Amino acid sequence: MVKLTMFIVRLLRKPLIWMGADFQQLQIILHTKLTIDFRRGPSMYQASGKKKRTFGTQLWVFVLFGLFISFGFISIHNLLLNFTIAYTVFMVMMTTTLISEFTSVLFDHQDNLIILVRPISNRTLLLSRLLHIQFYVLYIALAISAMSTVVTLFKYGALTALFFIVGMALSTWITLLITTLFYLLVSKVVSGERFKDIINYVQILLAIVVMGGYQFLPRMMEVNALKNFTFIIHSWTYLLPPAWLAAWVQLSMPAGVTTKVLLLALPAFVFALGGGMLMVRFLSGGFANILMQSSESSAVHKKEGIKNTKRASGLYRLFCVSEYEKTGWKLVMSITSRDRKFKQAVYPMYGFMLVMAFAMLRPNLNDLSGWFQQLRESDRYLMFLFFGFFTTTSITQMQFTDTPETGWVYRALPITLPGHILSGAVKAMLIKFFLPMYSVLILSVLFIWGIHILPLMILGAVLIITSTLITLNIQNTSLPFTQAREMQQKGTNFLKAILGIIIMGIVVGIVYLASFLPIWCICLFIVLVLVANALVFKIIRRTTFKYATI
Amino acid sequence: MNTPLISIRNLKKSYGNGNNVNEVLKGINLDIFPGQIIGYIGPNGAGKSTTVKILSGILSGFEGDIQVLGYDLRTQSIEIKRRIGYVPEIGALYDLLTPNEYLNFIGSLYSIEEEALQTRIGHLLTFFGMDQHADQRMDTFSKGMKQKILIISGIINNPDILFLDEPLSGLDANAVILVKELLIRLAAEGKTVFYSSHLMDVVEKISHRIILINNGIVVADGSFETLKTENAETLEKLFAQLTGNEATEFNSEIFNKAFGER
Questions:
Q1: What ipTM was estimated for this complex?
Q2: At CB < 8 Å, which residues of chain A contact B?
Q3: pLDDT tens string A151-181
């Protein structure tokens, strides 16, 4: 694959030189980077922590995924519409992949000390990064569109299929340019750490949008309605990159080519080349500055968290029974609010919860009060318990870190009660991530169904906490921040999910049954579960090093 | 010795922004002449690495004027980078490559002609006793072995100026001697060596000129002979005198208090 890539790069020699690169250096950098990636084996995902699958197998997954998209190809008759939709879907997917997986590659500052001291111009540097990413994205794009290419081949012929593939390559490049442009413009406004924070939030937001999209798009898509649509080129159509590419594919069938189509296809090339040239020529300096800022950020002495100590210490005094527990609590509290990767793993879950709430409760926007009335008469408050469960999934994230080697402290220090650190950490996670969200849930339930549901919701809360604790105990959760993130995906995920669903079902079932009991019974029940809760905490505190994996 | 090779005028550098600014360099003025070994010393966080990184073009966004080899560092950094070498403090190299591959990569970035590059790499690897390891991946190398490769990559373009950030850390005693002699030899050939270090005895012995910075300014500058005084006959003592404060002095009263009076 490295050889193929380098061959393509040599084909593009002229345009790359136009963009302002030293071609010789560009070639060397790319070749070296790709060699390193493939020696690393599972390659590009290294930076984002997914180590398991190799790029090759990953591509096969994308091929399968593309199968579903290709179904759309069979039914739509208008070629322009057909390919505009196809390219839109692909480009959205590419943007997602770029932002979530390749941002770290673009702004990788690990080799600053190797690269920046050499006589390499900023333009060559930026182009080498862009091309490095471009080839991964290109291979992914080709894999996703493989099935669609086959469909195109049979439906429109070989020439069109070829145009389609070239269009795919162009679409990835255009997507990459737009994404990078966005980053570079953001970096003009903010700098350093704030820039990283903003990128972090964009990634979180995007994850939510994508999860939501997978929920809603299939519902909204009415393929039948599109079947016999015709495609009219409006003036604003010239602003849509997918339409440019569709027009380009149309060029392969001279029968359908009009001046308008020709004009519509033109921007694809103008943007790919001109946009690239302008960006590399004028913004590469800014790009180099981002890299340089990354290497200095370590020298800023940041002051953190002094203001909240009083309130926080009040909290842990209330909940923690030993010094060890307080230690675990404090560690979790401070690291979870600073570790970007942690935020990236946890916060999308909350967004997802909102999306799920909409999907499961299906608000009828045309008749809100009627829907409300209907909801009030139903037992759907039980669904809010499911959402409560979602918030506890963040607790398992607590064990993961990018620097598991720091776990040596647990081994080196004479810690007699490691279980206390664990229980303190779990308590902090519950207070920080479960309690606030669940309070919101309770408030909305009270608002819809009224105060008499409150005991049931509290019963739900204590049950959720207890069952989460039991699950944590069964799963041998590690001490906070001691496991490498790559470990996350290993093995037992499927079993864990099944276990989780069963427990969720049991808890919701219990609450449902309890709703038939008189109120004093429910209160007694809550007290009983609280006692059980305390017992499980006791068991967790007894965890010894033999079980507390580091 | 008339025109300086490096001239630094009023160099300032601060990190962070807003109300979280940390000024690391507060106005450094230096003229460096060819054929010298310059030892750049100072306490942790004094700004040694920052200076070296700015001079070798890794960090931008500084205030003041810097001329290296007659070029302006801000606008002509590529010209400068062609003729300098840099050895980083931490083992920053692509350790999935072999020394041969890595050095070829670096050499080609300087556009060194293929054949000349091969012979140069071969000889340098032999010089550092790394020739048997030339085709092994570096991810299993010890810190010292990596450091040797880094030093080779720093001189692969036969630079006029060599910047080194803590070049001796991680090296065994034999390698330390080797590197020390290399530096002396480079200086004898008319090249300039600018290195930072914490090893006072080494700095004392091999430097023609010692520059001591503290809190972002130069507090001592000159050969060891001119710097040493009656009550500071070693560099270590001089260092302690000039950079020490209440926090670094061994205050047994406070130390005892830390563990409670026993």
A1: 0.83
A2: 24-25, 28-29, 32, 35-36, 39-40, 110-114, 116-121, 191-192, 288-289, 292-293, 295-297, 299-303
A3: 889 888 899 999 999 999 999 999 999 989 8
